[in-house]
Amino acid sequence: MKSVSSVLQILPNVASADVTPVKADAGTVQVINALFRELMAIFPAWRQAWPDQEAVKAAKATWTKAFMAEKITKVEQIRFGIEQCRKLGSDFAPSVGKFIKLCQPTPEMLGLPPLETAFREACRNVHPSMAGQANWSHDAIWHTAKESGFESLNRLETSLARKLFERNYVITVRRLIDGLPLQKMPLALPARVDGCRTPEIGNRALAELRAMRSGATHHG
């Protein structure tokens, strides 16, 4: 029998279209089975999460579906998550949501500021008083602020603005990992931003956040 590590080493990348809880192909099933064997070896109290075979089977289907939804489709991502699990020092297996986060390299691993530092920089630079003199430390922070909406970061209360920025910062990190281009910050910003501030801008951001929350609840 091949070891879990060797299985994960030789399996090809799994196309997202093939990763479904009902119609998973043989390669996907092999990856999920190997992953769960590895998790059971790392976390001695795994039965707290999966007390019997029925629970294990249901969890495998749920995890496969969550991987598809969150675009965890490469064996390299799962291997990275397993390595992070070994560093947790916990007896208890993580939830699928936590494991998915462990599969994602942190901004710091890519040479970017941590989330809170990037968020503070973005909020400072998009403030109207900084028009024409903002100093951006990295294209990734400019790109994330642009995707979040300068007006939204200005108008939303801090906790909501942070959630919006965090969601887009995660997407920005994924773009960097996938080698996709980011929006380039302009060499010089205009002295004033054109356009009127309208309630619709903040409302649109709030609606997006509510949808994110309901999706997270659904997936969790």
Can you describe what's shown?
This is Replication protein P. It holds the Pfam family Phage_lambda_P. It comes from Pseudomonas aylmerensis. The chain has 220 residues and is mainly α. The protein has 2 domains: 4-104, no CATH class; 108-219, no CATH class. Helix content is 59%, strand content 0%. The longest helix is centred in the C-terminal third of the chain and has 21 residues, at 199-219.
Class derived from helix and strand content: mainly alpha
Strand content: under 5%
Shape: elongated
**How do the SSEs run, as a string of H and E?**
HHHHHHHHHH
- Based on CA atoms alone, the radius of gyration comes out at 21 Å
The tally of domains stands at 2
User: On the 0-100 scale, what is the average pLDDT?
Assistant: 79
Helix segment tally: 10
Largest sheet: none
Question: What's the count of strands?
Answer: 0
State the helical fraction: 55-70%
Low-confidence stretches: 1-5, 10-22, 189-199
| End-to-end C-alpha gap | 34 Å
Write a brief caption for the model.
This is Replication protein P. Helix content is 59%, strand content 0%. The chain contains ten helices and no strands.
Keywords:
mainly alpha, 220 residues, 10 helices
SSE arrangement:
Layout: H1 4-10, H2 26-42, H3 53-69, H4 75-86, H5 96-102, H6 115-126, H7 139-148, H8 150-155, H9 158-177, H10 199-219
